[in-house]
């Protein structure tokens, strides 16, 4: 690949994932996400990134952006589990909040058609 094909990220490109990407990571059952709240109040959301055998990357803890996670928490999209307390920090499991699925279109009860007016039938003789 020529060097001209590699472009540096522009200044207006966000470097953090969108809240939808964070929610997708939290919702993945294979990726347990935790938040650690330190004694000084600092919070850190993180998960274990498994080793990818094809790229050789991973096998380490990865941090999620705190601002996006706090936004999801305040919006009620994620919830914290039971605390695990340590003298210097408290750790919570982060889980997605399951919202009931609503149909895209609410079916209305069909209106019954009015009965047809009675017709006088004349028989041909």
From TrEMBL:
Sequence segments annotated as region (Disordered): 80-125
Identification of the protein by name: Cell envelope biogenesis protein OmpA
Organism, as annotated: Streptomyces galilaeus
């Amino acid at each position: 690949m020529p060097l001209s094909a590699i472009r540096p990220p522009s200044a207006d490109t966000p470097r953090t994932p969108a809240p939808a990407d964070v929610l997708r990571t939290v919702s993945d059952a294979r990726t347990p996400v935790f938040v650690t709240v330190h004694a000084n109040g600092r919070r850190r959301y993180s998960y274990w990134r498994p080793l990818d055998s094809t790229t050789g990357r991973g096998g380490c803890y990865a941090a999620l952006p705190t601002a996006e996670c706090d936004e999801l928490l305040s919006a009620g999209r994620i919830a914290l589990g039971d605390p695990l307390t340590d003298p210097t920090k408290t750790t919570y499991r982060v889980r997605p909040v399951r919202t009931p699925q609503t149909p895209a279109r609410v079916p209305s009860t069909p209106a019954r058609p009015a009965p047809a007016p009675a017709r006088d039938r004349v028989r041909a003789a």
